[in-house]
Specification:
By secondary structure, the chain is of the alpha/beta class. It contains 16 helices and 10 strands. Helix 14 links the parallel strand 9 and strand 10.
């Protein structure tokens, strides 16, 4: 009888002992976080073992004067690790359910989450100045009274992920950023234009068809057109409005304007590669400044990458190239590819859920291992 009583106490003691180790805490947090963001799992155990986070709409000083953000604070007091998470141009809605689930889920695991909301997000365009605003957001979060300034990272989704990387490369903060956690970002904006224009995904010598989302196509086309010379821009806008062009319009375009027209007209990958080398200096400089590839040696943080293999906003090959570049520089990378978010979380898709239960479990476990790494790095 005495032995039977001791066994449960021994088990409880071992569990408690396990949970006081950093790796065990990371495992526990990651395991509870997964159901929080997957709609297919109706029970949210994290809500039973954590307090409700506080969400505040705040402003912070930036290069633009003041910028808006939402901050999610874990319940209770004390300091916590933090992350600046940029949503990019998708979706520009502060009340979007998936955004709330992600931010509240991270806050329930003990992380302060800052989500900047910039004017340009709703305009389907990227702006170089926003990079400095993200740097300012990081510095604001680092000094927040509820944040351990030595454990602050950056993250983002799609274009937001890439802009977060470029911000993390800034010499103002690159020695301070602990980690970057990126979902479906591009590595090189030039390559994203090539893939989008030619509807082709490529990696090295291999290439295959890819159907980009209209959001990506519209974003790329808008930047190409509005980055053109004024006379070219007027002609290109009329061509896009009419859906066709005539010889007189073509002859009136400059050499760089003709290259933009080629990229707008669904070229082959080889044609896209040739055309992009002939863009005007303004557009080329813009694409360079928003590309993580331009200053990859300035990225000092540990890198965690996630990418859905069926992503239609950014091809998964972009994350592969980023991972390869970071490793070539001697950096640490944890790279996860899965087929989960397109169907199970409905990120970047309008397709029906075709994920089988067995595959769902397999893909969810990949996400668990990835989040375990995030929790470990953030402390």
């Amino acid at each position: 009888m005495r032995k039977s009583i001791k066994i449960p106490f021994l088990v409880i003691f071992l569990v408690l002992l396990l949970l006081i180790t950093p790796q065990a805490r990371a495992s526990f947090k990651a395991a509870l976080f997964i159901p929080q963001i997957l709609p297919a799992i109706p029970i949210k155990p994290l809500e039973y073992v954590s307090g409700t986070p506080t969400r505040l709409e705040i402003t912070f000083e930036s290069s633009k004067g003041f910028s808006e953000a939402d901050i999610y604070l874990p319940s209770g007091n004390g300091t916590h690790p933090g992350v600046v998470f940029f949503m990019g141009i998708v979706p520009p809605d502060r009340e979007e359910k998936r955004i709330l689930a992600l931010a509240e889920g991270l806050a329930r695991t003990g992380m302060v989450v800052l989500i900047p909301w910039l004017e340009t997000q709703a305009e389907n365009r990227l702006v170089v100045d926003d990079i400095e605003t993200l740097v300012d957001a990081f510095l604001y979060l680092q000094e927040h009274e509820r944040v351990d300034g030595t454990r602050v990272g950056m993250g983002g989704i799609c274009t937001g992920a890439s802009m977060a990387v470029v911000a993390a490369q800034s010499n103002r903060i690159n020695e301070e950023v602990t980690f970057v956690n990126l979902f479906a970002g591009y590595y090189d904006a030039f390559d994203l234009v090539k893939s989008t224009a030619s509807e082709t995904r490529f990696n090295g010598d291999s290439e295959s068809p890819w159907v980009p989302d209209n959001l990506t196509k519209n974003m790329v086309n808008n930047h190409l057109i509005h980055g053109a010379e004024p006379d070219d821009r007027n002609i290109l806008l009329k061509i896009m409005e009419n859906g066709t062009w005539n010889q007189n319009q073509y002859d009136s375009l400059s050499s760089s304007g003709k290259s933009v027209l080629t990229l707008l007209g669904r070229p082959s990958l080889d044609e896209a590669k040739k055309a992009i080398t002939n863009l005007n200096a303004h557009t080329a400089d813009f694409l360079k400044k928003i590309s993580p590839s331009s200053n990859i040696d300035m990225l000092k943080a540990d890198v965690l990458l996630m990418h859905d293999l069926q992503d239609r906003l950014v091809p998964a090959e972009e994350s592969r190239r980023l991972a390869r570049a970071v490793r070539s520089n001697g950096g640490e990378v944890y790279h996860t590819e899965f087929s989960l978010f397109q169907n199970s979380v409905k990120v970047h898709t309008t397709e029906a859920d075709e994920t089988g239960k067995l595959n769902f479990i397999k893909q969810a476990f990949k996400l668990y291992r990835h989040m375990h790494k995030v929790m470990s790095l953030s402390g």
